[in-house]
Every structure is written in C-alpha cells, then in structure tokens.
C-alpha cells in the first residue's frame, strides 16, 4: 500500500517538476522576485540561494514583469563544458550592462553554476569562468569593475534535480543578482 | 559465498523496510569475494559485573568481513569456546576448516575501565601470530576493537589494517523551511561515532585531512558575495581560521605528506591556477600559470610531484608537475575527461574520476603503461579517496536518487554501499592512521 502511495507521489512530483521546468526555460519565471524589486535584497536571489530565511515565490501573473524585456531576464544559460555566451545570452547581458553603466550606484553579483557532471572542484571553476565571461562583457561595455562581483557555486546549487539533459541545461547558468 | 550473498541481501532488506525512518548505519556488501581466509573469532570471555556497551568481538568480526578478505565463521559452528591459550584445541578448528583463530577476554576493572586482550593463531601451524593487551576507559573500546582488527589483518595479509582510521564527509538535508543545510562530519571509518564539525547553509566541499589527523581543511563560503574560500579547522578544539586573505576565490586544498605545505587552487586575476602555501611562513608560491582551468592538486607521497586537473588541452585531463615548478606533463590521454586524481599511498598509481563514455566512473590510472582500470559503474561517481593502506577506495555515488558513500577494493573485487545518514552524503576523505 505504502509503495503505491510512494509511487503516486513520485509520479505527481515528476509532473510538477516537468511543469516548472517548462516555465524556467523562459529564463525568469523562478527569478522574478529580484527582477520586480531592483534594490539589493539580501534575502532573495532565486531558487539557488536558499540560504535566505525564506524563499519568495511570485506568480507569473505579476503585471509589472515583462518577460520579453531582456532586463527582466536574470538568468543566462550555457552549453556543456563551455563558458561562451550564446547570442541570446549576449543580448541579455548587454541590456544589463547598459543599465549598470548608466546607473553607477548599482552593484551586481554574478553567480555562476554548472551541471553535476564532472568533479565538484572543476565545476566550481567552470561556474566562475561563466560568471567572469559575463563580467568581461560588462567591463567592455563600460561597467566599473568594482560594481561587479563574480562568484561560483559550481554544481552545488542546482535548480533542477533530475539527472538528465533537460535538468542539466537549466543548471548551466549565470544568475545576475542585484 | 552464499552466506555473503544472504548477508548482503539481509542488510539491503533491513535498509528498505526501515525507510523512510532512519535505520542507522548500514554497510551493504554488494559484491563480496568468495575466497577469503576462513577465520573463527570466538565470542570474548567477560569477567565483571557490568558488560560494556561495545561488543569487541562483533566489531572485529564486522571489520574483517568489511575488508572482503575474510570469511568469518559463524559461532554456531564452534566446537569449543576458548578464551585462554591453554584452552585452545587446534583440532576443533581444523575440523571446521578455520585457518585462523582469535580468542580474547574483557575484564571489568572498575571505575569504568576495562582490560582487553586477544590472541591470534595460525590453526594449521598451531602457532601464535599476534597478541596484545589494553587497559582503557569504556569510551575507547571501539577504538581498541579496530586496533585489534588492524593487528589481525596485518598478521594474516602482510598489509597494515586501516580499521583504526576516520573519515570526513559532507551531508546535505533540507530543514523545516526547505533550506539546504550542510554538515561537515567526522566519523570512524565504519561510520560510528559521527560528530558534526561544521553546520552551515552554504555548500561545503573538498574536506582534506592534515597528516596529523587533527585538522581538516575544507571549502565553504563566508557570505553571499564571498565566493569559495578555504578554512582549516581543528576537529578536536573546533578552532577554525580562514587560510588566506585573498581577493580571489580559493579551493581544492591538499596537504603535503609532512603537513608543511598546502597546495590549492586560487584565482587571483580571474585565472584558475595551482599555488603552494608554506604554512609556517605563510608564503604563497605560484606553481602553474596558464589561462586554462588548473585545479585539484594532489601530492605524491614523497612530496616531489603534484598531479592536477587541467583543461589546457581542451577537456579536463590529469597533468603532473614537479613541486619545485617547471613544465606540466600530461598523463592521461584516453577517455573523454579525467579529473580529481590522487596518488595511491605507495605512490605507484592514481585514482581518479574518469569518463570513458559511460558517465563519471572511478578508475585507477597506471602511470607505467597509461592503462585505466575502471572500478565502478557510475554514471555520477565522484571524490575517490584511498584508505591509508591503499586497499580500499571510498567515493561518492548515487543510490535511489540520493547521494551515498560507497567503497571498492583496489582490485575491484569487493564493493560496498555505506548508508551513514538520512540525507545526502558526499565528499568523503579518509584520514591516515590515528596518532
């Protein structure tokens, strides 16, 4: 009996997670708590920073969030083992760079991540490489380097827990945190 | 063979039936060898009023079983139960085909102290091989049992035992607010006596034992903007300090065998390279200088070389460099990637994480002929660590979608899963012998 219950629970969770994954692909659905609030907020930065006292979840019906606006997108994604910015990522990064260059008082943390394949230490470095790739583009576009902090959590803070490419592609990311 | 199989299945069943409540430490032997030294470990004779909580004979028997090199004969088969040398009749033991015999006594001395003694015999030669006597407090009885196992193991195999050792590892659990809590733990190498060294809601990685067995270096994060940093903590006093005052991130600490130097990965100018810290002088020397990612340094036992992971030639592979500096030589060529290498205690080969097309597996690399022997199934195996006698490799793997620790013998013939904690377990580090 318990086994059937557990199986159904697993099935239910899988359905829910697949649903969430579809939203995350848009890039901002799970990070919208910081995109709505542009002040540096020590307690929120999307799913990955669960070191905060609470996880804030905003629904996607929030009218102030424009999912087509690259500035509203706070996550960019990468190919496996790569820290190269895709054209889509570049578009988003450039929008943030323009915003930062025009607002010298703002500071940003770039959080780099990797999927779980490979060793943890290598992934820690790879995540930092990805964050630095964004930081380099920021700098090229006139953002002061002391406004930017690049760090990495490697594979330690995945947003998707499954062991397949759809999860891995969501974990290979840099989060732009104000 | 059947007994090993049944024992393995039994522990597996106990594990399954006990879910989801935590069943305690379980070590499942998933692949045992069928030719071990048949050994009879006689239940110890107890003299006194108050039996200690620890059953020395059972701990020794479990140690020997876990090594995969012994067939522990069941006490139900014993024709006699000697506890003194003059009670031993070797015929009784030849009859049940025991090759080795262990007898012992535990005596209560009062004031929570005990005297423990044992004798080990070669049955066919009717010869005493080893014996020892301890006087200890009750809190040291488990350690005495492991030391006894070490004596027995070495006398019968010629290799020092590694039972009186400790492991460090990291656990991850979600707390009541669904936030990941990380713990750095230290336990005996059989999983008992686990103690929490650190608890934080930031990730903990790469625990590394100092050779004196008293300090652990590890990687964690000071704040949401700090990036990775190395700490060194005394596991007895709890004293901890940040290793470096550097702007860049630091990780992958590795102690030299004499404990005087720490190799590490540092990114000073946005570039990931290997540095060596002279601990006493607090002096940092750069070892590699390359735009690629250089990380995961590991010392050769003689301190003359380091191996490390580098992606300077594309995908990550293992390179070797002299500790005095100079050019780096690529060691691994086969496989898609190789990373996380460390030397065997005898310095003759490396254990590493290898991807040969089947995901991440643990493999042993022979520098002589460049051969890689894959020891585990993968596909998400990581963090191999040698026992100090080189006989076993502990590593992190997945079972039922959860991180667990596992161990495999260096020749691949013995395999175990260690269920030490109800949450995720990862990042094992095996200490040297207790000093």
Automatic annotation (TrEMBL), chain A:
Subcellular location: Cell outer membrane
Keyword field: Cell cycle, Cell division, Cell outer membrane, Lipoprotein, Membrane, Palmitate, Signal
GO cellular component: cell outer membrane
Record's keyword annotation contains Acetylation: no
GO biological process: cell division
CDD domains listed in its UniProt record: OmpA_C-like
Start and end residues of each OmpA-like domain: 65-178
UniProt cross-references to InterPro entries, sorted A to Z: Bact_OuterMem_StrucFunc (IPR050330), OMP_bac (IPR006664), OmpA-like (IPR006665), OMPA-like_CS (IPR006690), OmpA-like_sf (IPR036737), Pal (IPR039001), Pal_lipo_C (IPR014169)
A matching Pfam family: OmpA
Signal peptide span: none
PANTHER family: LIPOPROTEIN YIAD-RELATED, STATOR ELEMENT OF FLAGELLAR MOTOR COMPLEX
Protein's name in the database: 18K peptidoglycan-associated outer membrane lipoprotein Peptidoglycan-associated lipoprotein Outer membrane protein P6 OmpA/MotB
Lineage: unclassified sequences, metagenomes, ecological metagenomes
